[in-house]
Each structure stands twice: as C-alpha cells, then as structure tokens.
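Hi U.,

Before I forget, here's the chain from the pilot set. I'm dumping it here mostly so it's searchable later in email.
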Amino acid sequence: MTEQTELRRRGLALIDKLHGGHAGEAMMAEVADVCPAFAEITVDVAMGTIMSRPGLDLATRELILVAACVVLGHAMPQLRAHAEAALKMGATRQQVTETILQLVLYASGPSVRNSLVELKDLLVEAH
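Structure:
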C-alpha cells in the first residue's frame, strides 16, 4: 500500500467517523468534476495527516475548526459540520457556545451572532 493510499484511507475513515458514513466519498464527489485535487488534498493532508495527529483529541480539534469558521465569517456550512462533529466527539453544547462567544472581540459581533443563529437548532437540540 502506498503512502498516498494510506493517507486517503485514513482521511476517509476519519471524515466518516466525524460526519457519518460515506461522508468522505460524498465530499470528494462534490468537487470531482471541478477540481478533484482539492478533495484529494483535503482528505489526504487535512484529514489523513493533520487531523489524525496525536496531541489533541478530536473534540478539541473540532472546536478549533468551529472557531476558525466563526473568524472567517462566511463558512456557515463548514461551521455547522464542525459543530456537529465536535458534539459527536464529546464536546458539550456549552463548550461549542463558549468557543464561539470567546471570539466576539476577535472575529466581530456580527460573525459571532451569525454563527450562533446558524447553529441555534443544533445547540438547542444538544441542550
């Protein structure tokens, strides 16, 4: 098995663990006609290499990604996906909301508000 194949397998398995069965293949298919390299890089590097590293548990890694999406302010689908994954990996509703609230002075009030509104149903359900 080549290293590339091992990274792909590990990356797809982690995406499926975080986001549900076959999510990795679905994500790759979304951009296959436009830019398959983007999906390959995401799976191999972001998931197969970076997210798979030791040192931080998956809930913490997902909370970091929630924070990154809030700071960007325009990544609402990704914010939702990472908040769902954080909860699935054991983060609490309070940890997700505190992660977002922590950014009010760094990301802006509108980014924090929009993020909380985007996740309202998810966070109310997690309560």
